[in-house]
Amino acid sequence: MYSLTKLSRQLWKLERTSVRSFFVERAFTLGTRSTRGRLSTSASVSSSAQPATAAATAPEPPKPPPKPDHVRLKIDGREVEVPRASTVIQACQAAGVNIPHFCYHERLSVAGNCRMCLVEVEKMPKLAISCALPVMDGMSIITDSPRVKKSREAVLEFLLKSHPLDCPICDQGGECQLQELSMVFGSDRGRYYEYKRTVDDKYWGPLIKTVMTRCIHCTRCVRFAEEVAGVADIGTAGRGESTEITMYLPEKFFQSELSGNVIDLCPVGALTRKRYEH
């Protein structure tokens, strides 16, 4: 009896030991599988993240060279490509950047005397005349810096110093380039309280009415007469405040079939049509 009881106890202990070892082995197996799963998942994530990191750190491909006879430059931080024979103002216009100007005209030679088209060029100590400056490869141009805005405001202030404020009765009112640019780039008040200068009107023929007090000396009419009409009778006379556009010979007038075109070229109301004189 005692031996059977002892034997049953031994069997019970053996069973308990085997059951315990079974559960321990089972837990170890499950833990190993989960660890392997985590390792495989992390390995897959890291392997999938490697191409993204490599793509993010990969260097940018080299830019293609510019077209033949073209240069690449920056205008207000935006890279553009323009013909090598262009000027800065032409490059800005091609890029959709408006540069205010008075004397510049695409069909006439460059005068560069109004100073309204000044821009800032990197590594240049002073502002540059955009209508007379040729483009160069790698050039960086700024058209709206505080220096540029201040220079435009100063140019307009000096022009309005001698320009009569008769816009309500001027035939060019509402279509005047000086009026428009003064509203956009000029100051909201003036600092000049002296009398404005007056200039005698000239006779330029049966088509052109002249109000020379309004003239801003852009010389568009002078260059058109010489370069297009082939008449070298109009020019600049005097110096300083006495400067005026006039005929070299007072008894002559603008004798050309193309003389009426200077009315459309004039940016202000100095040259208007006699036919529509009020």
Automatic annotation (TrEMBL):
Occurrences of domain 4Fe-4S His(Cys)3-ligated-type (ranges): 147-186
GO biological process: ATP synthesis coupled electron transport
CDD domains cross-referenced by the UniProt entry: fer2 (cd00207)
Protein name: NADH dehydrogenase I iron-sulfur protein 75kDa subunit
Ranges of biased composition (kind: Low complexity): 40-58
Organism: Cyanidioschyzon merolae (strain NIES-3377 / 10D) (Unicellular red alga)
Domain 2Fe-2S ferredoxin-type: 69-147
PANTHER family associated with the record: NADH-QUINONE OXIDOREDUCTASE SUBUNIT G (PTHR43105:SF10), RESPIRATORY NITRATE REDUCTASE (PTHR43105)
Pfam families: Fer2_4, Fer4_Nqo3, NADH-G_4Fe-4S_3
Domain of life of the native organism: Eukaryota
